[in-house]
Each structure stands twice: as structure tokens, then as C-alpha cells.
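Researcher: Here's the sequence for the chain we discussed earlier.
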Amino acid sequence: MLEEKEKYDFAIIGSGISGLTCAIILAKHGYKVLVLEKHHKIGGCLQNFRRSGTNFDTGIHYVGSMDPGQIMYQCFKYFGILDQVKLERMEPDGFEHICFRGDDNAYPYAMGFENFGKQLIAHFPEEKEGIEGFVRELKEICDSFPLHNMEAGNVMTLNADHFFTSVDSFISTYTQNKKLQGIFGATNFLYAGEKGVSPKYLHALVVGSYLESAYKFVGGSAQLATALYQEIKRYGGKVLRNAEVTGFDTENRIIQSIRLKSGQEIYAEQVISTIHPKMTLEMLGEGTVLKAYRNRINQLNETKSGFILNIKLKPNTFKYLKHNTYYFKSENVWVNEYAPEEWPGFYYLFTSAEEGDPQYANSLTAMTYFDYEDLKPFEHTEIGERGEDYEKFKQEKQEIFIQLIEEKFPDLRSCIDSVYVATPLTFRDYLNIPEGGLYGIKKEVSGGVRGTITPKTKVKNLYLSGQSTGIHGLIGATMSAIVTCANFVNHGELVQKIKEA
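Model: Thanks. This is the structure I predict for it:
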């Protein structure tokens, strides 16, 4: 319980990775911090859920840059959680397997930029020069971003070409081989990439993190949320569950209090919202921010949503894989190049198991893209009350999806115990994301660096954080929190503390 009229230095809305990261940084700097979470569970995309005795992750399945000295390793160490999170290093010479219909090869993504190139050259020796050039520039882009290299700096000073060149154009400068182009771009699902739209810096930073090193969470990613929560408490911070924010009371463009659905009011000097920027603006009354600012944010496009199969497996039937699998119907790997009748054009699949050195998996998750428009008939329904037509719709799509998975894993159906489906409506309602976009607001070459959302808003004490204000995924949300907190703590000193942790 909170004391009546208790005032905080910071109220942070949302307990996903960005919210918890903001909270631990600010709490470690002596600020009085309160995190507000609308659900009974903390963690956002770090959460897991349990069905038929099996745990499933909701959004975060593995983490990059976790070898000693790399950026996420140093962050975990600085947060004080390194020893509290159980991780398993994935296959060094192939933590991702890229597969295509009609091709028996599994093309590897190997850890280490040089090793990544080496493994692909073994498959495409005639493309050696192009592969080496692509890998070299990929690493150069990563190294040029200050935080990725654990340095303080401003992205606005970086090479504009990184922001205004699409990733597919970047790839085509190094090879005209369609299969190799597909392999270079295959992991774009990690940020919902689109041909001609997604900038090359985004591909480099997201994919580059995993090329440095890739680890699975043993026992699920919810342990990361738990570990951060314990550290926040240790530094005097608080997390309030079942605390859905419904609006703000403002005066002279300053938030005076935060209104909760329960009727309670929260008072804080500064407010950081880590929920979707559009949903944040909805809670601000008309006239609080300029119409031009509101329109600019609301007109930004959303990333594509997903359709996910969470499959409980029968015991001792499906081999545990220490790699992820990407499977494509063709050499085209971009979601916006597939016609609706071709759905699904590809999928991303991984397995989970209990601790130890398992031979068999206890669950499997397969993800593909999905168009929110197909769910318009059910748009106004709520969780658990969507009706029989919705269940029938999911069942039909599930069957089509499983048929595609069977092209690569023909024995899958005999291994299935039960299946639990998530659609864009699931993401929309659990994570408060418009149209259930997997990664928040889309990064587009048409906007360049100026198309990004900065943490500081037009409300004097309201700041934003999360993957919509940074790059997508776990590393992006973490870096976004560091950038947001730099408005209140010395940026250079913070980065140095992380570097030396």
C-alpha cells in the first residue's frame, strides 16, 4: 500500500524492461521511485504464462551481447542481477539456422562477426568478397553508435546514410545472389523489417547484438523482471501492481498527479511513461500538448503484428534445439513482399526445456507475421470473451501455420500435446499497443533520425522510454532507458559506471 499524498521523485508507467531499467538506474542514484503496472504480473514482454504445467515466454526469448565485457553483460552487472539470471550460450557456429523451401541446407548465423562471415563463405565461396564487405560494414555501423560501444554520445551526429538507406538496398550493394541476400536479411523478424522501409542501422544494431553473442534464458525471461524488481526494492524503490493509469491532471503543461483506475492519485515530480507513446498521449487532455506534436506522433506507423503458436510437446518426442530456426517459402524474406493469400510466408521457431542438458524439448514456440485488418470483425472484443467465431478463426489459421512448419519438421504433429495461440488482439490487450504491433512504432528510412521520438515531450515533466523511442527488442529497450535517464543523471558518468561494473 502507498501512503496518502506520498510524493515520489519519479513515477514510471509500465514495468517492462525499459520501465524496470529506468527504475533501477534512478533508484541507484538515490531517487525515490515508484513503478506503476496495470497487470498483476510485472515484466511486460518479459512475462511468462503457464498452461497445462508448462511455462511459455510472451516476448523475450533470447538475449545478445552477453559475453563478458559486451554491453548487455555490463548492464546486467551494473544492475546487480548478473548472478540472478540463468543463461545458456547457444550454438556458437549456428545460433540461427536459415532455411528455405526446397533447399536442404541450414545456413548458419555464427557468433562473432568474423565467424559469421567464415561460416557463410563455406556455403558461398564465390561470394567471399561481398560477404566480408557486408560483415565489415555491419560491424562498423554497430561500432559507430556510442552506447553500443559503451561510450556517451549523440546519434544525431552519426552518418546520415545509416538512417536513410534501407537495409535491402544496403544488402544488395554486396551481393546480387538472391539466396545470399535472403540470408543476410533473414532475421529481420527481430524488428518486423520491411523491404524499402527499414533502415540499415536498425538491422545492424539488432542483428549485430546477437552476432556478438547469443544466450537463451534457462527457465524463461520472467526471471529477469524478478531480478530487477528485487534490486529496485533493495535501493528503496517500489512497484505497484494492478495500478492501471487512466489519465493525468495537468496545469501549465506540468503533470500534477496521475490518476489510476482504482480512483487513487499518484504524485511525482517527474513522470516516465514506457507504454506506447500514442497511448500515453491519449491520457493527456486536449490542449496539454500542441496539436502538431500530437498529430506527428499519431501519424507514425506501427510495426507489423504477429501470430504465435505456443506448443506444449509430448515428453521425449521433439529434440531440444540450441538454435533458432527461420523458414521461408522463397528467397524473399520481407513481410511486405508476400501477398495475403500466401500467408504465412515464413516463420521463426525455437524450443524450450527444463534446466540441465536436455535431449528433448518440453515446449516449442513458432512466430509469424499477421495483418491486424484480418481481425477487424473481433476488434471490439475483450480477452476471454471473443466468441466462437474467433476461436474458429484461430483454429483455421493454426492449421495453415502447422502445415508450413511440417515442411521443415514433418513429425511435429505427432509430438503436439496442446496448442495455445496468440494473435494481434492478444498483444493489443495485454501490452496496450495499438493494433498489437510487435515492436511499437516503426523505424522508416523516410523519417531518418528525425523520424524518431525523443524522450523529452512537450509536457515539462513527462518523459518517454521504450522501444518506440529507441531500437527494438531487449537491447533497444535497455538502451532507451539509459538515454531517458540521462536527462536526470550525468550521461557520461552513467555510461562509465556501466562500462566499469
